[in-house]
Amino acid sequence: MQTIFVQFKCRPGAAYRVADRLVEEIEEISEVYSTSGHYDLIAKFYLDPERDIGHFVTERLQVLDGVSDTFTTVAFKAFGRG
Q: A Pfam family for this UniProt protein (predicted)?
């Protein structure tokens, strides 16, 4: 699996609606959080290894109503206990 984190800037008043749509419509989502700072939301997605990240972000996420910008980070390795 490929893990990516996507931060979302939303139009004013749209962050919670965008978060709801992400959870309802995007099966690859793991979790989404509202955040402070330059972006309104951050979400974690798991994609199949052969999935094109660029197409996923531009064709599935950036087109959601209320999204005005995204910033994508690709994760390489997860660290944790046990």
A: AsnC_trans_reg
